[in-house]
Write a structure and sequence with these properties.
By secondary structure, the protein is of the alpha/beta class. It has a domain of 181 residues: Rossmann fold (3-Layer(aba) Sandwich), CATH 3.40.50. 38% of the residues lie in helices and 18% in strands. The chain contains 12 helices and 14 strands. The protein has a 7-stranded parallel beta sheet, with helices on both faces. Helix 4 links the parallel strand 5 and strand 6. The longest helix has 19 residues. The chain is globular, with a radius of gyration of 21 Å.
């Protein structure tokens, strides 16, 4: 099974590579070669900028792949170029999209399945919707069989562990030092966090699986928890009790909209999705890594890489302002 991964060195890609190696796949990566990343032995690497179609075409000349997994396609122009380059050169094309394509609304049953209307509110989500449309047309035209996979919040070694407010928060440093942390709107929003190795298993086992052709899937674990649960379990991973100060999301965004862009765009809304369809069509996709264990592993890796974000004065100013308003720090 010959598989090309466009990208290959990012967080989810690392999980995909591990799972593909378990399937004894012959793996080739195609990227710009600018990321300092350890690549497992036996994996071939091609270098090209995917935005340079001529260079992309030259890089894959003479190669034929059973499947292509595209991890770094963000707009219609990139997708259209990929169809021109790989149409007729592979049997199966798997595109990494995102649950951000659904937007911020929730259905009456709360969990969003793949047939929920896509109403993205971010440029990132809109770009991915455009890509999906291009690959669906290519599938219908017979260029290759296309599969769309939509991860949600994914974490693991090599990445960071977000909190409700930021991608790389000082919250974990504060919790370790016994200080309270901020959460938004009571921490009652619904959320899912899936380890990169579990997401990678879905991609790897969807490859050349006929049931996945022409389909789209949410790549999420079944556990849905509130942000209070999330903080509490992250605290377990650190061996610390977590104390939360709940403030309105709008208050935080008004104080520093640039810093809390993640909150403004995504995490103040529910993010709960169904993976029933993925589990039905790809039985090997079963999420095995619990959040406490995964968070422990991830935070240890963040520390080991020297990427641990320490508490900062601006965050403490917000904590002091919240306490001055009479808000209390309470156990998560």
């Amino acid at each position: 099974m010959r598989v090309l991964i466009i990208g290959g060195t990012g967080l989810i890609s690392t999980g995909i590579v591990s799972a593909l190696l378990g399937r004894k796949a012959e793996i080739t990566m195609l990227n710009r070669g600018k990321r300092d990343a350890a690549i497992p032995a036996g994996i071939a690497v091609l270098h090209a900028d995917r935005d340079d179609e001529a260079a992309l075409t030259a890089a894959v000349a003479g190669h034929r792949f059973d499947a292509v997994i595209d991890m770094v396609c963000f707009n219609a122009a990139q997708a259209e170029a990929a169809v021109r380059v790989f149409g007729g050169r592979c049997a199966h094309y798997l595109f990494c999209s995102t649950v951000c394509t659904y937007g911020v609304l929730s259905p009456p049953e709360v969990l969003i399945s793949e047939d929920f209307a896509q109403r993205p509110t971010s440029g990132y989500g809109r770009g991915k919707v455009e890509c999906e449309a291009v690959f669906r047309r290519a599938h219908a035209a017979g260029a290759f069989a296309a599969t769309i996979i939509r991860p949600s919040c994914t974490y693991g070694s090599g990445g960071t562990l977000i909190d409700q407010l930021e991608f790389n928060p000082p919250a974990w440093d504060r919790i370790e030092r016994g200080l309270p942390v901020l959460c938004a709107d009571g921490g009652l929003g619904l959320w899912q966090a899936t380890h990169r190795d579990d997401v990678g298993r879905l991609f790897a086992h969807a490859v050349l699986e006929p049931r996945t052709y022409g389909q789209d899937y949410n790549a999420v674990r079944d556990e849905v928890f509130t942000w209070r649960d999330y903080y509490r379990q992250a605290g377990e991973a650190l061996g610390r009790e977590v104390r939360l100060i709940s403030v309105p999301a709008a208050w935080l965004i008004a104080r520093d909209g640039k810093r809390f862009g993640l909150l403004a765009e995504i995490t103040r809304f529910h993010g709960a999705y169904s993976a029933a369809k993925a589990k039905r069509d790809v039985p090997e996709f079963r999420c095995r890594i619990g959040f406490v264990d995964g968070a422990r592993q991830t935070l240890a890796d963040v520390r080991r890489r020297g990427a641990w974000r320490v508490d900062d004065a601006a965050y403490q100013v917000l904590v002091d302002a919240a306490l001055a308003m009479g808000l209390a720090a309470e156990p998560a």
